[in-house]
Amino acid sequence: MQSSARVLIVVRRALIIAISSVAAVALAGQDRIDFDRLSLEQGLSQSIIEQIVQDQKGFMWFATEDGLNRFDGYRFSVFKNVPGDPDSLSYNELKALYEDRAGILWVGIFESGLNSFDPATEKVVRYRHDDDDPASLAGDTVRCILEDRSGRLWIGTQDGGLDRLDRETGEFSHHLLGGAPPTSAGFDDIRVIFQDRDGVLWIGTNGGGLVRFDPDSGVSTRYLSDLQDPHSLSDDRVFAILEDHTGTLWIGTYGGGLEILDRATGRFTHHRSDPEDPTAISYDLVKALFEDHEGTLWIGTDGGGLNQFDRDSGAFISYRHDPTD
Fold it and tell me: What confidence category does residue 32 fall into, taking pLDDT thresholds of 50, 70 and 90?
């Protein structure tokens, strides 16, 4: 096996998602960015990628809708469900991927629970919902995973809300997020978990708004859209959250564009698409937020391509697919 440093160098040179290189070109004022592609022809098992992780050794991991892929800079290794083998993934349609501080990969799977994957042994431990066990996983579709700074592992399920896993006992504790009736749409559909510099968890739901959750006290506050309040959340579907190096909290909504939350006042500043304004964000369905090592903010949309935010001018630069190129 190659050394960690060698793998990291190769991946950085070859990988399609070398965001730092993209940022350097864009910030230099060049209009064109060239993208390289890694797809089925190069050995990727499936072209729908839900999440990407670069592990502590430099390997790139891709959660696809047909298995877990590892890229070493040269080739892909694919890990899938093997019928009858309990040490394999419980199912191949993956929805979430996260590496904890011990180097274990945690995999969220569609209707098949949570798996832990040890890259050293390539063995899996499966966690599933059990109606007869109140300490089991709350729901079997896992959409997001986060290890907080205290080492607690948080699990966001699509139909069971927020869970915390005790890795020593294998038991889950369930956390009810307040501020809205349990019957409201999307109340228990968790799509993103983010911890800010103060240790607060920010939780995005698919229809239940944005939640501020204190993991120590268990107190939560929910932010919802309100048509009568122009400073409220623009859309109750929150799919991406990021606190940047300046302490600004960015919220990506699925329908209302990109938001900035003023945590002192609870007011939101909106960035919406506008076909008459080429400097506006390209699309209002925001799925991903990332800040690179140079402080450049990148926004992934569902249908409007990739956006870069220029902090000095407040303008968005968009990069979209061109079928002729």
Answer: confident
